[in-house]
Amino acid sequence: MSFREDGAAALDWAARYLERVGELPVLAQVEPGDIRARLPASPPEYGEPFADVLRDLDEILLPGITHWQSPRFFAYFAVSAGEPGILAELLAATLNSVAFLWRTSPASTELEALTLDWTAQLLGLPGGWHGHIEDTASTSTIAALAAAREATGRSLVVCSEHAHSSVDKAARLLGLELRKTPSDDQFRLRVDALDLTDAAAVVATVGTTSIASVDPVPALADACAGAGVWLHVDAAYAGSAWVCPELRWSQAGVERADSLVVNAHKWLFTPMDCSLLWTRRPEDLRRAFSLVPEYLRTSEEVDSLSEYGPALGRRFRSLKLWAILRCYGREGLQARIREAVRLAELFEGWVRAEPGWEVCAPRHFSLVCFRHEGDDEHNEAIVESLNRSGELFLSHTRLHGRYVLRLAIGNERTTEADVRRAWEALRAAL
Length: 430
Ligand SMILES: Cc1ncc(COP(=O)(O)O)c(C=O)c1O
Known about the structure:
The chain is α/β, with parallel strands linked by helices.
């Protein structure tokens, strides 16, 4: 078979998968080790046809896939890989550019800068920020905190108790101390409890992982400015919502941040992985990361994006983001975000209206935190039985010591009928 024929078969596989993904059990219904046990322990001696790879993908691997593309994936932060982004991934792999220097892929370097500028415009961010792409928000936050340490010469990071664990991990990797600040009754960092003594950076979260709460960024920006502290904003999930002007209340103060991360692979319909990191202090990032050995010296006076983060080799990630921004447009992005928020609001209303159920945190975006009356074991049993059924996939958190269910909407294929099915399944699981 030729590349052309195998390629057509792979694309056909992808199209059929997306058509039927809603019929597959959302959470993989396998036990640890099941998949590996069905695969040969050693690699083949001689090459096999690509058709065999596709066959085994269907027969062996697919049962072990948890379907993030399912319209009833409601766990963690639900995401979507939009079709233009899927196709662009194929093209990026075809080009296989490694853009560590401008000259090793000028188009990749320049398109990355352009797409970050475009996205900044779409999200209503200040003009003139320097943007580049990292693989994940975890890496973006490592980069931002390394720059903060470089800029301040201090080694303490301050965040709320609800900041993502990637902040803890970044601090650990960089040898920084971490000080967690308590939050208020709406799960926002308490500015009155903030202690910036010796701080290099504050990490404020817009859209926390558990409940999508929004830290008081304007007050944190004031405090940071007064103490010469770097302000990093983690808007990995909720930052994409700023494409809708009515959700930009949550952007207040972000224009004063030193750095900001938004994951296009979370709620901007771009396939994993694509984490957008902006800074208004690019020279500090560069001082933290630039290291140019002889073999990488060139005569061009241009930016190499590898000087702004930990990795040298850089994939052509901007191609998929560009494809999404072009094929969806501002209007298409807004329509998808608004629909997710509308569906979450609808679900929240059903929970509020039903005796015995309770909404456990204010809903700002497309995440609803809720529970049924009764103890933690009862609520955990509901989640476990629904996830085991394959009908939908939910995750949980713990708030004020209580087990809380989370329903996150973010897949572009999720319809009102899917959300209604989830609510009916929840009620039937009691
Ligand atoms: C608020 C927040 N920040 C950071 C992360 C980490 O993202 P990544 O998996 O891209 O490192 C997450 C993951 O869900 C998150 O919710």
